[in-house]
Amino acid sequence: MGSFQVLKRMLEGKPILVHGDGTTLWTITYNTDFAKGFIGLMNNTHAIGEAFQITNDESLTWNQIYQIIADCLGVPYKPYYVASDFLDAVGPYDFRGGLLGDKANTVVFDNSKLKKAVPSLCMNVKAEEGLKRCIDYVMSHPECQTPDPEYDSWCDKIIDALEEAKKKILAK
Q1: Is the domain 3-170 a CATH 3.40.50.720 member?
Q2: Most buried of the four, 39, 52, 124, 164, by CB within 10 Å?
């Protein structure tokens, strides 16, 4: 499933599939901030034998994340909400762990353990800035712009099938 295709759909004015109602919370951690946390744990006596999560403290809904992406692209955000379990049931992709076991559930992390072990750690890149940097990079590097027509067609098929189901249910 090509992530560029989501951007391409947005740029073409097509709706994008959003699992659930887009209101579950998620955390985006920019790579340089992650690296600061990781390096701070290396050779750190307080980290030996311990497990740490390295995440940003900022939590955003999927609607907020996609709205930021749409704003970066200068296009309207056109979500098409689909139940996560439906996507898993009809998808040719493995949604069991990555979506149902992860992204469909709200996550808010407590980073106090990491901050105690690495007191100098400061996450400097907010989600909006990190997303902007990523999109700017993808849009300025053609090699990152690999279309995924199969994913695009699958999205259209999902939307068409659900719209047809609505018509059938509403028909008298």
Answers
A1: yes
A2: 52
